[in-house]
Design brief:
The protein is an alpha+beta fold and 323 residues long. The protein is 36% helix and 26% strand. Bound molecules: ligand DP6.
């Protein structure tokens, strides 16, 4: 049995749009921080059965979830010629009720686990390209710490891979205000397709991502938290503005989201170095140096719709061990 571990990541400069939907190639780059608290552990066991099996958090899966994972394993079977089926058991090590379950940690763990189980020898960049075919953000979770995803130019997607930004030493922790799960809004995959196809702001958004990527890397290297706040919050709000401008408009924010945004900006006005970002959901993720983590956690606690407030240091890249 092979035990694979990967952590989800949160993007400081967002991926929101594809240049090729079949190969899952992003239209622009992105930049993220891998987070230790959002960890997935996936056991991959070669089986003598005629089909793959999948158990998620103790629940046997069939239908779409199994088909997606099986199609992913097929990518590796096609490359190795090894036709062995796999028993896959995956669990999230964070509160799943929180609605934070992430395709990033899931497909990064699956990529390294399935590659090892089927004997595919692959470089980290190749594993990143493989994970990307499961989910775009998973390409970044192959690596720990700050990670840069490249849009690439090649039609076959071999250069649409992530790389670790190992020279950045800025210590940042995440404080995640988990807004109570409401009715499920549109997922990232469908949301970004609808945005590309219908938002009048889409091209401007893609052009802005390149500007934000360069500025973000520069601000991280020079440890300029004030500048980072402007870039990261601006990029997040531009992504959401773009999604809101799709037809029909996509609104991920809930009242608790706006409340948490205000708390973060109030803290900043009082001198606390902190800034926020928000993925395709209602949760607000604040970033702050470790010394301010408790202050930020306290400030984000107290709204009736904020179910819990998690904190996390940066996480490591995906790993796999034989047991
Ligand atoms: C808002 O990686 O979930 O979190 O490639 O279609 O699986 P697919 O999309 P996914 O999109 C992530 C969108 C985001 C921003 C980000 O993580 O960069």
């Amino acid at each position: 049995m092979y035990e694979a571990t990967a952590c989800a990541n949160i993007a400081l400069v967002k991926y929101w749009g594809k240049r090729d939907s079949d190969l899952n190639l992003p239209a622009a780059g992105s930049l993220s921080l891998t987070l230790d608290v959002l960890k997935t552990v996936t056991e991959v066991t070669p089986s003598s059965g005629s089909t793959d099996t999948l158990v998620l958090d103790g629940e046997p899966q069939s239908g779409r979830a199994l088909a997606r994972v099986s199609r992913f394993a097929d990518l590796v079977r096609a490359r190795t010629g090894v036709q062995t089926r796999l028993d896959i058991r995956s669990r999230n090590m964070f509160p799943t009720a929180a609605g934070l379950a992430s395709s990033a940690s899931a497909f990064a763990a699956l990529a390294v686990g399935v590659a090892r189980a089927l004997g595919l020898s692959a470089t980290p960049a190749e594993l990143s390209a493989l994970a990307r075919q499961g989910s775009g953000s998973a390409a970044r979770s192959i690596f720990g710490g700050f990670v840069r995803m490249h849009a690439g130019r090649a039609a076959d997607g071999t250069d649409a891979v992530a790389e670790p930004l190992a020279d950045i030493e800025l210590p940042l922790h995440a404080v995640i205000a988990v807004a109570a799960a409401g009715p499920k809004s549109i997922g990232s995959t469908d949301g970004m397709e609808l945005t590309r196809d219908t938002s009048p702001f889409y091209d401007a958004w893609i052009a802005q991502v390149d500007v934000d990527l360069a500025a973000c890397q520069d601000a991280l290297r020079s440890r300029d938290l004030e500048r980072l706040a402007t870039i990261v919050e601006g990029n997040c709000l531009a992504m959401h503005a773009n999604a809101m401008a799709a037809r029909p408009g996509i609104i991920y924010f809930r009242p608790a989201t706006l409340w948490a945004i205000e708390r973060v900006r109030e803290l900043r006005r009082t001198g606390v170095p902190v800034f926020f970002t928000i993925d395709a959901g209602p949760h607000v993720v604040a970033f702050t140096p470790p010394a301010h983590e408790a202050t930020v956690q306290a400030a984000l606690t107290g709204h009736p719709d904020v179910a819990r407030v998690l904190t996390s240091p940066p996480g490591a890249g995906a790993q796999v061990v034989e047991r």
